[in-house]
Design brief:
Layout (H helix, E strand, L loop, with lengths): L1 E10 L2 E11 L4 E5 L6 H9 L4 E8 L2 E2 L5 H6 L2 E4 L11 H7 L13 H7 L1 H4 L11 H13 L5 E5 L7 H16 L3 E5 L3 H7 L2 E6 L2 E6 L1 H6 L1 H7 L3
Amino acid sequence: MLELKDVTAHYGTSQALFGMSLDLQAGQVATLLGRNGMGKTTTINSVMGIVKASGGSIRFDGQELVGRASFRTANLGIGLVPEGRQIFPNLTMMENLVATASNHLGVSDPWTVEKVFALFPELETRKSSMGNLLSGGEQQMLAIGRALMTNPKLLILDEATEGLAPLVRRKIWDALSEISKAGMSILVVDKNLADLMRISDRHYIVQRGEVVWSGSSAELQADETTRRRYLEF
């Protein structure tokens, strides 16, 4: 479904990606792992067209994404939950949820407000609350719900549970597990390795803008040397 081959990216004269390559199959959950500043967010932003790839290929469902405008990439069926949530502070929770709702791909059973509330019941009680008055956990649930309301084929989450309380993190992981069981592909960045290994099919460890290790949860669990070298913070 998603394939990156030898992707490079720059911020001005500073290079951030040095031949990033990975692939995600339909229905899979994959992770980007690594310490801060290693290129995970840049990889996601390159997929979305927020950062322009300077080399290589990014293909989604057979279509090249390099050079494509961000909104056109989103319309192909990629939903982004960005780092920092980036909800609209001066809109209500409900307004945030429906502001970008769409069904460009003609999904027969699309995501609706009711389905999002079933996934995150906490949101239903805050329908009229302004975005800036929601808790961090509520904002993250809203950001996920907002992305789902675009009815994507692929859901990308950058720092899925950063800064959230343990109970809220558990709700997020349970929701992502439920979404993946329904067949949606997911690419996620996070530091909670135990939770990621519980729901993910494949992991990619990023070091200085390239993948230095990839494998299954079982393989990562067995490879203590790799975890210590690349993932201990």
